[in-house]
Amino acid sequence: xxxxxxxxxxxxxxxxxxxxxxxxxxxxxxxxxxxxxxxxxxxxxxxxxxxxxxxxxxxxxxxxxxxxxxxxxxxxxxxxxxxxxxxxxxxxxxxxxxxxxxxxxxxxxxxxxxxxxxxxxxxxxxxxxxxxxxxxxxxxxxxxxxxxxxxxxxxxxxxxxxxxxxxxxxxxxxxxxxxxxxxxxxxxxxxxxxxxxxxxxxxxxxxxxxxxxxxxxxxxxxxxxxxxxxxxxxxxxxxxxxxxxxxxxxxxxxxxxxxxxxxxxxxxxxxxxxxxxxxxxxxxxxxxxxxxxxxxxxxxxxxxxxxxxxxxxxxxxxxxxxxxxxxxxxxxxxx
Length: 335
Ligand code: 13P
Ligand code: SF4
Hints:
With 335 residues, the chain is of the alpha/beta class. It has 16 helices and 12 strands. The strands form 3 sheets. A 4-stranded parallel beta sheet has the order 2-1-3-4, with helices on both faces. The protein is globular. The protein has 3 domains: 7-103 and 287-310, Rossmann fold (3-Layer(aba) Sandwich), CATH 3.40.50; 108-193 and 315-330, Rossmann fold (3-Layer(aba) Sandwich), CATH 3.40.50.10800; 200-273, Rossmann fold (3-Layer(aba) Sandwich), CATH 3.40.50. The model has no long low-confidence stretch (mean pLDDT 94). The structure holds 1,3-dihydroxyacetonephosphate (13P) and iron/sulfur cluster (SF4). The site of 1,3-dihydroxyacetonephosphate has 11 residues, from loops.
Protein backbone atom coordinates (compact mmCIF):
# COMPACT_ATOMS: atom_id res chain seq x y z
CA UNK A 1 0.00 0.00 0.00
CA UNK A 2 1.52 3.31 -1.08
CA UNK A 3 1.15 6.27 1.27
CA UNK A 4 0.59 9.67 -0.19
CA UNK A 5 3.65 11.74 0.66
CA UNK A 6 4.01 15.22 -0.79
CA UNK A 7 7.14 16.92 -2.11
CA UNK A 8 6.75 19.47 0.72
CA UNK A 9 6.89 16.82 3.45
CA UNK A 10 9.93 15.21 1.90
CA UNK A 11 11.59 18.61 1.45
CA UNK A 12 11.06 19.51 5.10
CA UNK A 13 11.85 16.17 6.68
CA UNK A 14 13.34 13.90 4.03
CA UNK A 15 12.46 10.23 4.41
CA UNK A 16 13.46 10.24 8.11
CA UNK A 17 10.13 8.97 9.41
CA UNK A 18 10.04 6.02 7.09
CA UNK A 19 11.84 2.88 8.14
CA UNK A 20 13.01 0.33 5.64
CA UNK A 21 12.69 -3.30 6.69
CA UNK A 22 16.32 -4.36 7.25
CA UNK A 23 15.60 -7.78 5.69
CA UNK A 24 14.80 -6.26 2.31
CA UNK A 25 17.27 -6.77 -0.50
CA UNK A 26 17.13 -3.26 -1.93
CA UNK A 27 18.79 -4.29 -5.19
CA UNK A 28 16.04 -6.77 -6.08
CA UNK A 29 13.30 -4.50 -4.65
CA UNK A 30 14.47 -1.68 -6.91
CA UNK A 31 14.50 -4.04 -9.92
CA UNK A 32 10.91 -5.00 -9.09
CA UNK A 33 9.82 -1.37 -8.76
CA UNK A 34 11.43 -0.56 -12.11
CA UNK A 35 9.43 -3.32 -13.78
CA UNK A 36 6.13 -2.67 -12.03
CA UNK A 37 6.23 1.08 -12.56
CA UNK A 38 7.81 1.11 -16.00
CA UNK A 39 10.61 3.26 -14.58
CA UNK A 40 14.13 3.86 -15.80
CA UNK A 41 17.05 4.83 -13.55
CA UNK A 42 19.51 7.26 -15.12
CA UNK A 43 22.64 7.74 -13.03
CA UNK A 44 25.64 10.02 -13.26
CA UNK A 45 29.13 8.56 -12.79
CA UNK A 46 29.52 10.54 -9.55
CA UNK A 47 26.83 8.50 -7.79
CA UNK A 48 27.83 5.98 -5.14
CA UNK A 49 28.73 2.52 -6.53
CA UNK A 50 25.52 0.80 -5.32
CA UNK A 51 23.40 3.32 -7.25
CA UNK A 52 25.53 2.91 -10.37
CA UNK A 53 25.03 -0.86 -10.08
CA UNK A 54 21.21 -0.63 -10.16
CA UNK A 55 21.06 2.03 -12.89
CA UNK A 56 19.77 1.28 -16.40
CA UNK A 57 22.13 3.83 -17.82
CA UNK A 58 25.20 5.54 -16.38
CA UNK A 59 26.66 8.48 -18.24
CA UNK A 60 27.97 11.99 -18.50
CA UNK A 61 25.60 14.94 -18.78
CA UNK A 62 25.38 14.67 -22.57
CA UNK A 63 24.62 10.94 -22.55
CA UNK A 64 22.10 11.40 -19.75
CA UNK A 65 20.32 14.23 -21.59
CA UNK A 66 20.17 12.09 -24.72
CA UNK A 67 18.78 9.08 -22.81
CA UNK A 68 16.24 11.34 -21.08
CA UNK A 69 15.16 12.69 -24.48
CA UNK A 70 14.72 9.20 -25.95
CA UNK A 71 13.24 7.08 -23.18
CA UNK A 72 9.70 5.74 -23.39
CA UNK A 73 9.59 4.84 -19.68
CA UNK A 74 6.73 6.37 -17.67
CA UNK A 75 8.94 7.40 -14.76
CA UNK A 76 12.49 8.73 -14.95
CA UNK A 77 14.38 8.29 -11.70
CA UNK A 78 17.32 10.61 -11.90
CA UNK A 79 20.24 9.60 -9.72
CA UNK A 80 22.23 12.80 -9.99
CA UNK A 81 21.77 16.40 -8.93
CA UNK A 82 18.88 18.82 -9.28
CA UNK A 83 19.90 20.52 -12.54
CA UNK A 84 20.23 17.09 -14.19
CA UNK A 85 16.75 16.00 -13.10
CA UNK A 86 15.44 19.39 -14.24
CA UNK A 87 17.07 18.79 -17.63
CA UNK A 88 15.21 15.48 -17.89
CA UNK A 89 11.93 17.24 -17.00
CA UNK A 90 12.59 19.99 -19.58
CA UNK A 91 12.81 17.27 -22.22
CA UNK A 92 9.92 15.19 -20.84
CA UNK A 93 7.00 17.34 -19.65
CA UNK A 94 4.60 14.40 -19.54
CA UNK A 95 6.80 12.05 -17.56
CA UNK A 96 7.22 11.88 -13.84
CA UNK A 97 10.83 12.78 -13.02
CA UNK A 98 12.02 11.77 -9.56
CA UNK A 99 15.17 12.81 -7.71
CA UNK A 100 16.02 10.74 -4.59
CA UNK A 101 17.04 13.86 -2.64
CA UNK A 102 15.65 17.23 -3.75
CA UNK A 103 18.43 18.96 -1.83
CA UNK A 104 21.08 17.50 -4.15
CA UNK A 105 22.13 20.82 -5.68
CA UNK A 106 25.33 21.97 -7.37
CA UNK A 107 27.81 24.65 -6.29
CA UNK A 108 28.47 25.51 -9.94
CA UNK A 109 24.78 25.95 -10.78
CA UNK A 110 24.40 28.02 -7.57
CA UNK A 111 27.21 30.33 -8.71
CA UNK A 112 24.88 31.83 -11.34
CA UNK A 113 21.88 33.45 -9.60
CA UNK A 114 19.17 34.37 -12.11
CA UNK A 115 18.81 38.12 -11.40
CA UNK A 116 22.57 38.83 -11.50
CA UNK A 117 22.97 36.77 -14.65
CA UNK A 118 20.08 38.56 -16.33
CA UNK A 119 21.78 41.91 -15.62
CA UNK A 120 25.09 40.62 -16.98
CA UNK A 121 23.35 39.48 -20.15
CA UNK A 122 21.53 42.82 -20.52
CA UNK A 123 24.86 44.69 -20.27
CA UNK A 124 26.11 42.67 -23.26
CA UNK A 125 23.10 42.57 -25.58
CA UNK A 126 25.09 41.70 -28.72
CA UNK A 127 26.47 38.50 -27.13
CA UNK A 128 25.15 35.01 -27.74
CA UNK A 129 24.79 33.11 -24.46
CA UNK A 130 26.26 29.62 -24.27
CA UNK A 131 25.59 27.99 -20.90
CA UNK A 132 27.09 24.83 -19.51
CA UNK A 133 24.29 22.39 -18.62
CA UNK A 134 25.31 22.70 -14.93
CA UNK A 135 22.91 25.62 -14.37
CA UNK A 136 19.31 26.15 -13.27
CA UNK A 137 16.32 26.00 -15.65
CA UNK A 138 16.07 29.80 -15.25
CA UNK A 139 19.63 30.28 -16.56
CA UNK A 140 18.91 27.84 -19.39
CA UNK A 141 15.88 29.93 -20.31
CA UNK A 142 18.16 32.99 -20.56
CA UNK A 143 20.61 31.12 -22.82
CA UNK A 144 20.83 30.61 -26.58
CA UNK A 145 22.63 27.26 -26.57
CA UNK A 146 23.42 24.77 -23.83
CA UNK A 147 26.59 22.68 -23.87
CA UNK A 148 28.11 19.90 -21.80
CA UNK A 149 31.76 19.05 -21.26
CA UNK A 150 31.31 16.35 -23.93
CA UNK A 151 30.25 18.73 -26.72
CA UNK A 152 31.37 22.23 -25.63
CA UNK A 153 34.15 22.53 -28.19
CA UNK A 154 31.84 21.57 -31.08
CA UNK A 155 29.14 23.94 -29.83
CA UNK A 156 31.56 26.89 -29.70
CA UNK A 157 32.96 25.98 -33.14
CA UNK A 158 29.44 25.94 -34.60
CA UNK A 159 28.99 29.65 -33.80
CA UNK A 160 30.02 32.17 -36.52
CA UNK A 161 33.47 33.64 -35.78
CA UNK A 162 32.30 37.26 -35.64
CA UNK A 163 29.59 36.50 -33.06
CA UNK A 164 30.58 37.61 -29.51
CA UNK A 165 29.87 34.96 -26.87
CA UNK A 166 29.08 34.91 -23.15
CA UNK A 167 30.06 31.61 -21.58
CA UNK A 168 28.49 30.67 -18.22
CA UNK A 169 28.66 29.59 -15.48
CA UNK A 170 32.02 27.72 -15.32
CA UNK A 171 35.05 29.99 -15.70
CA UNK A 172 37.47 27.03 -15.78
CA UNK A 173 35.68 25.23 -18.59
CA UNK A 174 35.30 28.63 -20.31
CA UNK A 175 39.05 29.34 -20.07
CA UNK A 176 39.81 25.85 -21.38
CA UNK A 177 37.48 26.42 -24.36
CA UNK A 178 39.09 29.80 -25.15
CA UNK A 179 42.44 28.01 -25.30
CA UNK A 180 41.11 25.12 -27.41
CA UNK A 181 39.02 27.08 -29.89
CA UNK A 182 40.94 30.38 -29.99
CA UNK A 183 37.62 32.21 -29.46
CA UNK A 184 37.45 35.17 -27.11
CA UNK A 185 34.53 34.77 -24.74
CA UNK A 186 33.11 36.77 -21.87
CA UNK A 187 33.19 34.42 -18.87
CA UNK A 188 30.81 34.26 -15.92
CA UNK A 189 32.78 33.85 -12.69
CA UNK A 190 31.47 30.49 -11.48
CA UNK A 191 33.20 27.23 -10.53
CA UNK A 192 32.65 23.76 -9.14
CA UNK A 193 33.75 23.28 -5.52
CA UNK A 194 34.99 19.75 -6.24
CA UNK A 195 37.12 20.49 -9.30
CA UNK A 196 38.80 23.48 -7.67
CA UNK A 197 40.09 21.46 -4.73
CA UNK A 198 42.91 19.50 -6.36
CA UNK A 199 46.45 20.21 -5.18
CA UNK A 200 48.95 20.85 -7.98
CA UNK A 201 51.83 20.29 -5.60
CA UNK A 202 50.55 16.91 -4.41
CA UNK A 203 49.78 15.80 -7.99
CA UNK A 204 53.31 16.71 -9.08
CA UNK A 205 54.73 14.74 -6.12
CA UNK A 206 52.57 11.75 -7.11
CA UNK A 207 53.83 12.01 -10.69
CA UNK A 208 57.42 11.95 -9.45
CA UNK A 209 56.72 8.89 -7.29
CA UNK A 210 54.89 7.10 -10.15
CA UNK A 211 56.90 8.04 -13.27
CA UNK A 212 54.59 6.14 -15.66
CA UNK A 213 51.34 7.51 -14.27
CA UNK A 214 49.06 9.60 -16.51
CA UNK A 215 47.00 12.50 -15.22
CA UNK A 216 43.48 12.56 -16.65
CA UNK A 217 41.37 15.59 -15.79
CA UNK A 218 37.91 17.06 -16.21
CA UNK A 219 37.82 20.51 -17.88
CA UNK A 220 36.11 21.96 -14.79
CA UNK A 221 39.57 21.77 -13.12
CA UNK A 222 41.73 24.88 -12.80
CA UNK A 223 44.13 25.83 -15.59
CA UNK A 224 47.25 24.82 -13.58
CA UNK A 225 45.98 21.23 -13.32
CA UNK A 226 44.81 21.08 -16.95
CA UNK A 227 48.20 22.35 -18.14
CA UNK A 228 49.96 19.22 -16.85
CA UNK A 229 47.17 16.75 -17.77
CA UNK A 230 47.81 13.97 -20.28
CA UNK A 231 44.14 13.85 -21.25
CA UNK A 232 41.19 16.19 -20.65
CA UNK A 233 37.56 15.26 -21.15
CA UNK A 234 34.04 14.76 -19.84
CA UNK A 235 33.47 11.85 -17.46
CA UNK A 236 32.54 9.54 -20.36
CA UNK A 237 35.58 10.65 -22.35
CA UNK A 238 37.85 10.08 -19.32
CA UNK A 239 36.37 6.60 -18.85
CA UNK A 240 36.80 5.70 -22.54
CA UNK A 241 40.39 6.98 -22.48
CA UNK A 242 41.19 4.88 -19.39
CA UNK A 243 39.93 1.78 -21.25
CA UNK A 244 41.72 2.29 -24.58
CA UNK A 245 44.95 3.92 -23.39
CA UNK A 246 47.97 1.69 -22.78
CA UNK A 247 49.16 3.15 -19.46
CA UNK A 248 48.57 1.11 -16.30
CA UNK A 249 48.28 3.90 -13.73
CA UNK A 250 46.18 7.06 -13.73
CA UNK A 251 45.67 10.02 -11.44
CA UNK A 252 42.02 10.95 -11.88
CA UNK A 253 41.24 14.66 -11.42
CA UNK A 254 37.48 14.61 -11.12
CA UNK A 255 34.89 13.44 -8.60
CA UNK A 256 35.79 10.03 -7.12
CA UNK A 257 32.55 8.28 -8.20
CA UNK A 258 33.95 7.71 -11.70
CA UNK A 259 36.63 5.38 -10.26
CA UNK A 260 33.99 2.68 -9.77
CA UNK A 261 33.38 2.26 -13.52
CA UNK A 262 37.06 2.77 -14.38
CA UNK A 263 38.06 -0.02 -12.02
CA UNK A 264 35.27 -2.30 -13.30
CA UNK A 265 36.25 -1.75 -16.93
CA UNK A 266 39.99 -2.06 -16.34
CA UNK A 267 40.42 -4.27 -13.24
CA UNK A 268 44.19 -4.58 -13.70
CA UNK A 269 44.85 -0.84 -13.93
CA UNK A 270 45.44 1.43 -10.94
CA UNK A 271 43.35 4.56 -10.49
CA UNK A 272 44.44 7.15 -7.94
CA UNK A 273 41.99 9.93 -7.00
CA UNK A 274 43.75 13.28 -7.48
CA UNK A 275 44.64 14.51 -3.97
CA UNK A 276 42.80 17.55 -2.63
CA UNK A 277 44.54 20.48 -0.94
CA UNK A 278 43.27 19.51 2.54
CA UNK A 279 43.18 16.12 4.17
CA UNK A 280 39.48 15.82 3.49
CA UNK A 281 37.19 13.86 1.20
CA UNK A 282 36.40 17.07 -0.68
CA UNK A 283 36.76 15.46 -4.09
CA UNK A 284 33.54 13.62 -3.23
CA UNK A 285 30.74 15.91 -4.39
CA UNK A 286 28.60 16.48 -1.25
CA UNK A 287 25.55 17.13 -3.45
CA UNK A 288 25.88 14.00 -5.59
CA UNK A 289 26.52 11.92 -2.49
CA UNK A 290 23.25 13.04 -0.85
CA UNK A 291 21.55 10.33 -2.91
CA UNK A 292 21.72 6.87 -1.33
CA UNK A 293 20.38 3.47 -2.33
CA UNK A 294 17.81 3.77 0.49
CA UNK A 295 16.53 7.14 -0.76
CA UNK A 296 16.46 5.79 -4.31
CA UNK A 297 14.30 2.88 -3.18
CA UNK A 298 11.95 5.11 -1.16
CA UNK A 299 11.58 7.68 -3.92
CA UNK A 300 10.58 4.91 -6.33
CA UNK A 301 8.23 3.35 -3.82
CA UNK A 302 6.44 6.62 -2.96
CA UNK A 303 7.03 8.35 -6.32
CA UNK A 304 8.37 11.47 -4.62
CA UNK A 305 10.23 13.88 -4.54
CA UNK A 306 9.19 14.86 -8.02
CA UNK A 307 10.54 17.66 -10.24
CA UNK A 308 7.74 20.15 -10.89
CA UNK A 309 8.33 22.98 -13.35
CA UNK A 310 6.38 25.94 -14.61
CA UNK A 311 5.41 25.23 -18.23
CA UNK A 312 6.53 28.63 -19.62
CA UNK A 313 9.91 28.22 -17.96
CA UNK A 314 10.20 24.69 -19.33
CA UNK A 315 9.44 25.78 -22.90
CA UNK A 316 11.99 28.63 -22.70
CA UNK A 317 14.63 26.31 -21.22
CA UNK A 318 13.97 23.62 -23.83
CA UNK A 319 14.89 25.82 -26.81
CA UNK A 320 18.66 26.04 -26.06
CA UNK A 321 18.65 22.35 -25.02
CA UNK A 322 17.15 21.38 -28.41
CA UNK A 323 19.79 23.47 -30.14
CA UNK A 324 22.49 21.63 -28.24
CA UNK A 325 21.06 18.23 -29.17
CA UNK A 326 20.75 19.26 -32.84
CA UNK A 327 24.38 20.46 -33.05
CA UNK A 328 25.59 17.35 -31.19
CA UNK A 329 23.64 15.09 -33.55
CA UNK A 330 25.06 16.84 -36.62
CA UNK A 331 28.59 16.54 -35.14
CA UNK A 332 28.07 12.78 -34.61
CA UNK A 333 28.41 13.12 -30.82
CA UNK A 334 25.23 11.26 -29.91
CA UNK A 335 25.53 7.51 -29.48
P1 13P B 1 30.08 15.43 -17.17
O1 13P B 1 29.73 14.11 -16.59
O2 13P B 1 29.14 15.84 -18.23
O3 13P B 1 31.51 15.44 -17.61
O4 13P B 1 29.90 16.52 -16.00
C1 13P B 1 30.64 16.50 -14.85
C2 13P B 1 29.99 17.18 -13.71
O5 13P B 1 30.57 17.92 -12.96
C3 13P B 1 28.60 16.92 -13.48
O6 13P B 1 28.20 17.53 -12.33
FE1 SF4 C 1 28.10 20.50 -9.29
FE2 SF4 C 1 30.68 20.06 -9.08
FE3 SF4 C 1 29.00 18.47 -7.80
FE4 SF4 C 1 29.17 18.38 -10.49
S1 SF4 C 1 30.74 17.82 -9.04
S2 SF4 C 1 27.31 18.42 -9.26
S3 SF4 C 1 29.60 20.52 -10.96
S4 SF4 C 1 29.29 20.64 -7.41
